[in-house]
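Q: Could you write out the predicted structure for this multi-component system? I'm mainly interested in how the pieces pack against one another.
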Amino acid sequence: MSYKIPMGPYHPALEEPYKLDLICEGETVIDAQLHIGFNFRGIEHLAETRNYIQVIALMERVCGICSNIHTLTLCNAMEGLTGLTPPPRAQYIRVIMAELERLHSHVLWAGIAAKLMGFKTMFMTCFELREKVMDVLQAISGNRVNYSMNRIGGVNRDITDPQSILRLVEALELEMGRTVIPIFTTSRTARSRCAGIGVLTTEKAVALGVVGPVARASGLPQDLRRAAPYAAYTEMDFDVPVQPAGDVTARLLVRALEIMESCKILRQALSKLPPGEIATEGEKFVFTTGTATARVEAPRGEVMYSVSWKEGSRNPARVHVRTPTFAVMPAIRWMVKGARLADTPLIQASIDPCYSCTDR
Amino acid sequence: MNLWNKLMCYSRRHSPWLFHMNGGSCNGCDIELIASLTPRYDAEQLGVRLEGSPRHADILCITGPVTHNAVNAIKTVYDQVCGPKAVVAIGSCPATTNVFIDSRTLDGPLNRHVPVDVFVPGCPPRPDAIIQGVAKAAEILAERAAKKLPIAPVVMPLVGPGCEGACPCAATTELKNEEVRA
Ligand code: SF4
């Protein structure tokens, strides 16, 4: 006989409010239902009542983990409508911020995954390391979470001393390579807890249309930084790590390798940082009637913004957001089928869900 | 106050256990709360511990602008915390609903639903500020246990590097000023 185990919406194993109903037979999960909407703040509607400057501050607060990505995508879309092109230095600074954000997001995820594995030491190590990334972000932007770096036609703050930031990044890379990566790839605790659980096959991944690290861990080599480069990614040299296995270990490995790739991109961007303006100063712009979309590879996968504007208006007519978790979420159902009940918190965390983005 | 009460006050002040609740926040404050418990900031030196159950907790930390869906849960959890208890509102969201003001899916600010003792402002507040707020709440908790203090919310001062006029709030005011001039 099957029975239902409700988990959440306010539950210690969940970072955010959402509800997971697990339908079990004995210890085995046979199905799962996910209920979201506890974080619904109506941001898309609010955006229609804010002007073109306020909307950037509003969209930054869609998500506290990938706040920079949201403004970057929004600014990309608005630049499409106004015809402004940010100067090269601004494009590089955008890349640097995006990669630093990817770093801190992946390390954060590693920490939370370690906590769910019951590996508390690792959790503390990851968070200590994350503080070092936050130091770099704070040195650049002055803030720890909502950086407010992007604006239409450029960025708000310059990186005045790329060499000192570069030194911080090199120290970071050394530390990552010395602690986080080996522990996750070679530690028996981590391996025995993750191997072979929550498998998402390549066919299923294609059928569900998953994005980001989850897709790459199921053997799909997709990455917008490569496929549709934005900002200065055309000038960067990096690899897209792909793992064919599709289990939680593969997702762990993809994120661990991405951390190293991010460090590589950061080193290149900081050493090649071109001189010049950081924003199109003093240039007048008008919004043309129409819709512009922008896609960006966030730490969790593809974020898409579609912004509509009516000429002469100060407020957008419509801002539509599609977040990566929205695309990856349905895959949880196929991942937990047949898993043991005790593994489900780790499996559902392995997609790195962000329901505050998804609910908005 | 007898010796037993003194001992209880002392212990309340030195081992406040937290229950964290997300009332529709953007995750920024939640992550900073977790960061404040990790080695760099180490709130555990104050005896603070994050608990999984509200029934074990003394201090309720609430983040987020309180969405319609969260209201009942917040009230239930508040009732489940055993007294004496204190509530810390982390971030600007529970205090004023922040940038989400005017949203129709919100039922904030928080003090319309539960009595708040300490407001920690900031979007998000820095971990140092969160620890300061929790320490203040622990003080209130000890005093309340001793003599049933009435609730008078405390607003903590802002902590951390200033935004130096480069953040969007400054940009918006500048825009308004320019409009006024034009
Ligand atoms: S105060 Fe700011 S960081 Fe905190 S939940 Fe609200 S919007 Fe997010």
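A: Regarding packing and overall arrangement: Chain A touches chain B through 50 residues (CB under 8 Å).
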